Amino acid sequence: MGSNHPVQVIAVTGGKGGIGKTNVSVNLSLALADMGRRVVLLDADLGLANVDVLLGLKPKATLADVLEGKCDLRDVMLNGPGGVRVVPAASGAASMVSLNHQQHAGLIQAFSEVGDNIDVLIVDTAAGIGDSVVSFVRAAQEALIVVCDEPTSITDAYALIKLLNRDHGMTRFRVLANMVGTPQEGRLVFAKLSKVTDRFLDVALQYVGAVPFDEAVRKSVQKQRAVYEAFPRSKAAMAIRAIAQKVDAWPLPANPRGHLEFFVERLVRPTGSGL
């Protein structure tokens, strides 16, 4: 029954609120879809679902309804712009870690049913370094850490990387600098983060690029549209397009561990049980 089609699972996270993480998730999804990828965007911010708000979508059902067996994952998916399908979060839902056995099985089943027609699953995590964030990030293949040029953003990103490295053995992280003034500033933010991780942790950080601060982003948020769609020639949209091309070149998982069911199995396994 399961899919044998490898899916790139990317968790977009950052440890801190207000760094434009959801904007990155949404626009990266659109840019990848534009390149012909079949993209599903999972709003995993279980406390403060906001992907649907950002895109002006009105969910009739959420992931919570899937877990309760009321409907299929297909029924919950919303058609977003550019062919991106959105799985809205259950606002205020219990952490994925506290699901019972039947719900675990239901979630794995739900994702395996849609796995064959997905190429990329982008997971927009909540802010902070709580259990729900950690469980989504450690289950994904790629952790994309969003940082901006603020001391708290860098310290929070470091705290998240440290936790994932020490408790879950994660050693590779991708870093995106958001809302920067210049490309040099993006590199500088990355250098600040690398400096602390190199000193205290045994991890490899890879710089993916920077998205500039752009008034067009604020305007698009007011319109409840993605900047990539509303202002495709804007600096932010062009930067996202360049980043999407890099992301698209990331190696696909070559083994069965890269299939969607495996992502979900890791997601629901209690924290601390390793892989």
TrEMBL record:
Question: What gene makes this protein?
Answer: fleN
- UniProt name for this protein: Flagellar biosynthesis protein FlhG
| GO molecular function term, any single one | ATP binding
Which keywords accompany this UniProt record?
ATP-binding, Cell projection, Cilium, Flagellum, Nucleotide-binding
Q: Which GO terms describe its biological process?
A: negative regulation of cell division
Asked whether the UniProt record includes Nucleotide-binding among its keywords, one would answer yes
Kindly give the Pfam families that the UniProt entry links to this protein.
ParA
Q: What are the record's GO terms for cellular component? A: cytoplasmic side of plasma membrane; cytosol
Q: Which InterPro entries match?
A: FlhG, MinD_FleN, P-loop_NTPase, ParA/MinD_ATPase, YlxH/NBP35
Region forming the signal peptide: none
Q: Does the keyword Metal-binding apply?
A: no
